[in-house]
Each structure stands twice: as structure tokens, then as C-alpha cells.
């Protein structure tokens, strides 16, 4: 199988393209099939529609299924439209059930139903089963193509079984042992099997207490489990212990990437909008609601400042430090938020008590606040000639930073406990709360010290 | 092997603790050794110092090495201090070379050297080799415990070889084929080996064009490669093709987690400060520099506002909309930043042209800007009774949002091209730039329209 390093990729792709253009289709097929499906997919998406049609004519639906699985969702949708219906259904038959389910879930119901009807009954049933699980659960990302054994087989018998079943299984490195009711009773790795005597019974090789997850478990918890134990796969079971499927480590990598994207989205008010390959209009439609919503919060801030118009009109210079104060409080709050959110994601927070974490954040905020206040007490008199202004801004920054770190740390903890949609803990929301508190602190102090200015 | 689900964990740990307290050490050892090393480590960190000493006395250095590998770095450091020197050295001998190198790199040179001297020469050489690679390269995260084959062996011979070598290898699922010069010439999966005829030569089973990475490749590129092809491992080679080691998928998961933490750190001015298990003082020491640095940028903003003191003193209400404008521009810029940074991280951006991405962002910014401007043109006259004020704020928000998205998208692209430390692209820096531009736009418009207010 040809796998391409960066430098050989372009050359090989040009070579393939030439063969296709010159209609040397036999040679093309031979060389194309040498590629890893991931590289086949990379080549495929470069092709013009006309060349794609040539491709469909000369490669089997099974090969096309491998390519399909390596494509992005938007590319998959384009592909399916170009195929004739029979070829498409045959291709979907060859997909792993989890990939087929993920794809069909994105189509409208009529289209999905049409494809399901054209599929083999068995395969279609697997796909329907997976589609029935709520998104982001273990059930929704598991694969049905796993290998299960009986505990009374010998190592040699299992290896014979593998020779038969390996081509259809997503992994053969973890083998799950089930009893007569299909309930999961053990696991044996191919590693253990290889190193065992050939007449050894699976019973004696398997681990009997298997870590498994329920089909409704959160996909993030499955990812944490696999990461924690360095597993290559984890079994998914029904409430009564029946083995339903497995989640493999490559699915988990996708989950971790997705969760990281989601975390970032929540920190940047771009939740659900981080897809780079959309039109400006689609991007605006996804992002505008956040900006507009946060702008309305900005109107609240404007209202707060408006309340102190009298103070401001007496000392206009106070306005100059609004961005500095709000920016600092916002940054400190977001830092705390990031620390706590990462701690929750990586599971390192649980080892510490929550109260200690909050106290730590409060102390941290006070220390940073003192440093900032001292700096301002020196700088402001130099540039603006007013020591009293420095005192007002200094005390305000100390108070706002101390509060901001606590709010930044508390909100995600509460939200985590309450299992509310974590979007509400997003950076911009915490920043807004800190903005308003900071402004109240600032102008209250300024108003009460006004006579000294 | 006992692996613990959440509900059985506490019970089993209590049981172990009781045995340890009652000094029923034989029974304790037997039950403790039933646990997966990851769970052994979880149990270990719960123990008081006195109980830990009991543990060291009854388990071998080899078992302790497995526990050690499952601990966090800070816990590893605590552990090594408690051990007597000979036991510690023996334990380090049993670590995988990559884990030993990662740990020793964190100690000071004298300590690290003392441990290296006490180790077996062969193991110490492997560890020293890994420590010589720069951090975050493929070389620094690869493992030396891989299995290499000769192409002239038969499938059966390889399986015999695996029986011998499997216990010392980190994975046996990918087997690398080298020639007489130790140069990588192919790869064969255990899957292919199992399904092959037993007298088939490795030569005929292996893929000859293997995707490999250089030892100085960025760890993130290795992660992308493994993720793209759904590999379980990738081989690391020297410039002349000699197989040096392998990077396994579980290491890659750690890399992806680390990179996500890093991305988040760059977005939240908490770079390198996301460790939750540190004292308030340490946290303040790591985070304060960012807050103070950004506060100095805030002083620039204050200076900009100060320049427009005359305008402000005529219409104090203008100050009320400073946070709204700056917040909106900041949010829009951060959204663009997030989209582009994720696109770069996931590799989805490369498919689009960069110019098209920038144009897309600019159009998106204008569209969101129009929506915000229209909303303000309705709301501000109602609450503040001034249509002219609404026009000033409306035009300003339209201009700032259009500019902010372009800046948010451009900066990470430039930084990516120049291969500069991406910390400079962090959210708060872009927000500061957008703040200043937004204020200039706002007050320039306000000043020029002052006579109409």
C-alpha cells in the first residue's frame, strides 16, 4: 500500500491525474488502489466532477466506501448526490455502521429512509439502532463491528476465528468474551492470546472485571476512560450487561478534538461556529446571535455608566480608565475560568477540594490585584498628575480582580454541578458580569471620594 | 485483573485500606495486584506517608514502576523522594524509556545524573538519547520499546518472536521491518500477520511505503498524522532512514490534550498557568505577568480616550458606550481568531485559499456589523432620546466589527506563516488592538459629528 509523505504526495497525485486524463484507466485503477484510503480521499476531493464520474465507473462500491469514510461530512453529502442510487446503497452497505449512522443522521428523513430501504436488512438494522441513541453518547459513537468470543474456546480456535472475521471488524486487538445471553463477561487482548499456549482456554486468559460504559454515557466520559487506562477500545453495554458495541481509540481522538473545539467556542462566543468552510452569510448567521446578545449586555453596562453621569461630568478623566479596569477584570476572570474548565476536562480538579480551589482563586486574585494597584499608584500620578485618581483606580482594580477570579472559578463549578449547558459559563458572559461589578465598584468609590479630587 | 467502575471503586479501596491497616499484608498484596496499574496509582495517592512505606516494602520495584507511570509529574516527584536510592533506581530501570526521560528531564541535573548512574547502562543510554531531543518533537515523545523484524522471516517465526518480546514492547500491533542497516523498509500489522498463512514471508505481507516522521518533527504533526490515518502508532526515523522509535496513539492523545490546553491558554491570557494543583502564590506568579502586561495596554487605551477629553466633556454620555463598542469588537475579533486557529489546528483551513478566508471574515464582520448597527439605531433613541448618538454608535460598531474580524483572522495566519510563537496571537492581544482601533473610530466619528449633537 502506498502511503504518501508530504513531498511525494503532489508528484503521485499528478501522475494519477495524468493517467485519468489520458483514459489509461487500468493503469490508473492499479496505481490508485495502491494508496491508503485516506490518501485516496485526498485525491478524490481534488477532482473535477467529470473525472469523478470516471472514478465511480472503475472502482467498486466497497473501495468507494473506504474513501467515503475518510471524507468530511460536507464532502460526503456532495458525493452521494453524484452517485446513482444503486451504487450509493451498495456503498453505504459497506460502511461501518457508526459511519453510516453519523452520515444518515445529517440527511433529511426522506433521503435517509430511502437509503436505509435500499440497504441490506441486517446492516440497516445496525444503523437504525445507532441512530436511535442521543447524540454525544457512547451509543451514538460506538461501532457494531467488534469480535466476541466464547470463554470455552482455546487460543488456537480464536485465532482461527480471527482469520475469518478480521476483515469485517474495526479492531481485532481487543476481543470481548460474552456468555450465552450475550452479556459481557471478560476481555482478552490479542497480545495475551498470541503469547498464550495454543490450547489454553479463553476463560483462563481473559480479565473478568472489564471496565465498560453504558450506551447512554457521555462521549466525553468514554474518552476520559480510554485516555486514563491507555485502552485501544472500550466496550459499550446495555443496562443488563449485554455487549452492544465498542468505542475505538480513533473515535475518541475525534471526540477530544471536538470537545476542545467546543471549549474554545465557549470561551470565544463562537460556539458551533468554528467551521472554516462555510460562506460569509452562513458564518454571520451562526455568529451574529452571540455578538448581538453580548451587545445587549453591553447596553446594561451603558446603563450603569449612565447612572453615574454626574460623577463622570465632574471628572471626565474617570472615563479613560473604564477600559483598563474592565479589561483587567475580564482577563483575570477568564484566566480562572480557563484553569477550572481545563481542570474539570482533565479530571485533575477532583483531587483538590472545591472550597480550596475557590479560596486559592480568591487569594490569587488579591495578589494580582495588589501588584496592579501598586503599579497604577506609581504610574497614574506621573502621567495624569492626580494621586487621588490613582487611589480610586488602584482600589477599584484590587477589588475587581479579587471578585473577578472568584466569579471566573465559581460559575463553571456551579454549572458543572447542576449539569446545565456549559455555554452559559462562556468567557464573554463571565466577562460581562465582571464588567458590571467592576464598574459599580469603580464609580461607587469614585463618587464617594469625589470631594477629594 | 480487577478494573474498577465508579461504584465499586470506593468499596474496593476501603477494603484494601483495611487490610493495610490491619497489617494483613499477604492478603493486601494479592488483592492490590489484582488492580489495573491506573487504579493502583489512584489508590496509592490516597495513602498517608506511613502506609506508603508499608506498600514499598511489599511490592516489587517492577510493580512500582507501573504505578509510577500512571502518576502525575508532581506526584512522581514526591514518590521518588520517599524511596530509598537502590529501590528508586531499580524502579526507573523498569520504566519505559520515554516515561523515564520525561521524568528525569524535570529533575535538576545532579539528581537526574545520580539516577542515570544507578541505572543499567543500556536503559540509561536509551533514556539519555530521548532526553537529547528538543521538547515537543517526535523524538522527545517516542518510545524505544518497539518490535522490529527482518523481512525474510515467516509469519510463524514472527509470532514465535512476539511470544518472547511482547512483554517488553509498548505495542505489538504494528511491527516494523528493518534491513541490515536498521533502516525502516516496511510495516506489517499483527492483524495482517494473524490472517496470513504461517509460512508466508514478512516480505510479502508488509507495506513497503511506510509513512514515517523525522525525530525533529513537531509533536503536533505526528498527532495529525496518526489522527488522519487512524493509526495506532507511527515510526520515527533518523535523516538516513534508521528506525529510532515509535510514537503510540496514547501519547498522541496526551499531545492533543496538551495542545488544546495551550490553545485555551493563549485565548485566555493564562498560558502555562492552567495547572489547578498549585498554591495561590505560584498561580499569581504565573498569571500576574499577563494581567499586568495587558493592564499596560489598557494604559494606552486610557491615553487614547484622554486625547478626546474635550469631546467627552461636551457629551459625557459618549463614555457609556465605550464598553459596548469595545466588547463587541473584542468578541467579533476573538470569534474570527477561534475559527482560524481551529482551522489551522484541524488542518481544514488549508483546503481553502487564505485570501478567500480573509474576504469571508471581512464580509461576515460587515454583516454582523449591519445587524448590530440597526439594532442600536432603534434602541438608543428610545432609551437615550438622541438619534445622532445612535448614528455615531451605529456607524462606529459597523466599522469596528468589520475591522475586528479581519484582524482576528489575519494575525494568526501571519503568525502561522512566520512560525513565531503563537502566544502573540492570543485573544487579549487581538482584543487590545481592536480596542484601540475601535476607540479611534468612535471618537473620530463623534468629534466630527459633535456639532450635530
UniProtKB/TrEMBL annotation, chains A, B:
Regions that span the bilayer: 288-305, 317-341, 362-384, 390-415, 427-450
Domain CBS: 142-203, 206-264
Bilayer disposition of the protein: Multi-pass membrane protein
Main location: membrane
Subcellular localization: Cell membrane; Membrane
Protein's UniProt keywords contain Plastid: no
Pfam families: CBS, MgtE, MgtE_N
Subunit structure: Homodimer.
Protein family according to the UniProt entry: Belongs to the SLC41A transporter family.
Protein's name according to its UniProt entry: Magnesium transporter MgtE
Organism: Halalkalibacter kiskunsagensis
Gene name tied to this protein: mgtE
Amino acid at each position: 500500500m502506498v502511503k504518501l509523505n508530504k513531498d511525494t504526495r503532489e508528484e503521485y497525485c499528478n501522475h494519477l491525474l495524468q493517467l485519468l486524463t489520458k483514459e489509461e484507466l487500468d493503469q490508473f485503477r492499479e496505481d490508485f488502489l495502491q494508496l491508503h484510503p485516506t490518501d485516496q480521499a485526498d485525491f478524490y476531493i481534488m477532482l473535477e466532477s467529470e473525472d469523478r464520474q470516471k472514478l465511480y465507473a472503475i472502482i467498486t462500491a466497497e473501495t468507494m466506501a473506504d474513501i467515503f469514510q475518510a471524507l468530511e461530512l460536507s464532502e460526503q453529502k456532495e458525493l452521494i448526490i453524484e452517485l446513482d442510487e444503486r451504487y450509493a446503497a451498495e456503498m453505504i452497505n459497506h460502511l461501518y455502521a457508526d459511519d453510516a449512522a453519523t452520515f444518515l443522521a445529517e440527511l433529511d428523513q426522506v433521503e435517509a429512509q430511502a437509503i436505509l430501504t435500499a440497504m441490506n436488512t441486517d446492516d440497516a438494522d445496525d444503523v437504525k439502532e445507532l441512530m436511535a441513541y442521543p447524540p454525544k453518547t457512547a451509543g451514538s459513537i460506538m461501532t457494531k463491528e467488534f469480535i466476541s468470543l466464547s470463554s470455552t474456546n482455546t487460543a488456537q480456535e480464536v485465532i482461527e476465528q480471527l482469520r475469518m472475521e478480521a476483515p469485517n471488524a474495526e479492531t481485532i486487538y481487543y476481543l470481548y468474551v460474552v456468555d450465552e445471553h450475550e452479556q459481557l463477561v471478560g476481555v482478552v487482548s490479542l497480545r495475551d492470546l498470541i503469547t498464550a499456549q495454543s490450547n489454553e482456554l479463553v476463560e483462563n486468559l481473559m480479565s473478568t472485571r472489564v471496565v465498560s460504559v453504558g450506551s447512554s454515557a457521555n462521549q466525553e466520559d468514554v474518552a476520559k476512560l480510554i485516555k486514563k487506562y491507555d485502552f485501544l477500545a472500550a466496550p459499550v453495554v446495555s443496562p443488563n450487561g449485554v455487549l452492544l458495541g465498542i468505542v475505538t481509540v480513533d473515535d475518541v481522538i475525534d471526540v477530544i478534538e471536538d470537545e476542545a473545539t467546543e471549549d474554545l467556542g465557549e470561551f470565544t462566543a463562537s460556539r458551533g461556529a468554528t467551521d472554516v468552510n462555510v460562506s460569509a452569510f452562513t458564518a454571520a448567521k451562526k455568529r451574529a446571535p452571540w455578538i448581538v446578545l453580548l451587545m445587549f449586555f453591553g447596553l446594561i453596562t451603558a446603563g450603569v455608566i449612565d447612572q453615574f453621569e454626574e460623577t463622570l461630568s465632574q471628572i471626565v478623566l474617570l472615563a479613560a480608565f473604564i477600559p483598563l479596569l474592565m479589561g483587567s477584570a475580564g482577563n483575570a476572570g477568564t484566566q480562572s475560568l480557563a484553569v477550572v474548565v481545563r481542570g474539570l476536562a482533565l479530571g485533575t480538579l477532583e483531587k483538590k477540594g472545591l472550597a480550596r480551589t475557590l479560596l486559592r482563586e480568591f487569594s490569587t486574585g488579591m495578589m494580582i490585584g495588589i501588584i496592579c494597584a501598586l503599579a497604577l499608584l506609581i504610574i497614574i500620578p506621573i502621567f495624569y498628575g492626580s494621586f487621588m485618581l490613582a487611589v480610586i483606580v488602584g482600589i477599584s482594580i484590587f477589588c475587581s480582580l479579587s471578585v473577578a477570579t472568584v466569579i471566573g472559578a465559581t460559575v463553571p463549578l456551579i454549572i458543572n454541578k447542576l449539569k446545565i449547558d456549559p455555554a452559559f459559563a462562556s468567557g464573554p458572559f463571565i466577562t460581562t458580569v465582571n464588567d458590571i461589578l467592576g464598574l459599580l465598584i469603580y464609580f461607587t468609590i469614585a463618587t464617594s471620594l469625589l470631594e477629594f479630587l
